[in-house]
Design brief:
It is a single chain. The protein is α/β, with parallel strands linked by helices and 76 residues long. The chain has one domain: Restriction Endonuclease. The protein contains 2 helices and 4 strands, in the order ββαβαβ. The protein has helices spanning 24-36, 51-60, and strands spanning 4-7, 13-18, 42-46, 64-66. Strands 1-2-3-4 form a 4-stranded mixed beta sheet, covered by helices on one side. The longest helix is centred in the middle third of the chain and has 13 residues, at 24-36.
C-alpha cells in the first residue's frame, strides 16, 4: 500500500512513497513492485537529501523529491 495515492482531474493516478530510512529490503520491494506493475507511477519523497537514495531512484526510474511534494507533480 502506498503512503498516498493522488488522482489528478485528468484521471491520471500516481502513488507517493515517503521514506525516511530507505532500507535495502524496501529498495528490493520497490524494484519488485515496479517489475510486476510497470504501468504504475510510483514517486518517492525523502525528508532529507541522501546521495545513495537519490542515485538509487535515478538508476531504477523512480521520480523523487527531497523535502516536499513538488507542485509540478500535480500539473502533469
Amino acid at each position: 500500500m502506498p503512503d498516498f495515492t493522488v488522482t489528478l482531474p485528468s484521471g491520471k493516478v500516481f502513488h507517493i512513497e515517503v521514506k525516511g530510512w530507505f532500507r535495502q529490503e524496501d529498495k528490493a520491494k520497490m524494484k519488485y513492485v515496479k517489475l510486476c506493475n510497470p504501468e504504475v507511477d510510483i514517486r518517492m519523497v525523502f525528508p532529507r537529501k541522501n546521495k545513495k537514495d537519490i542515485t538509487w531512484c535515478e538508476k531504477n526510474g523512480f521520480p523523487y523529491s527531497v523535502g516536499v511534494v513538488p507542485k509540478e507533480w500535480f500539473y502533469a
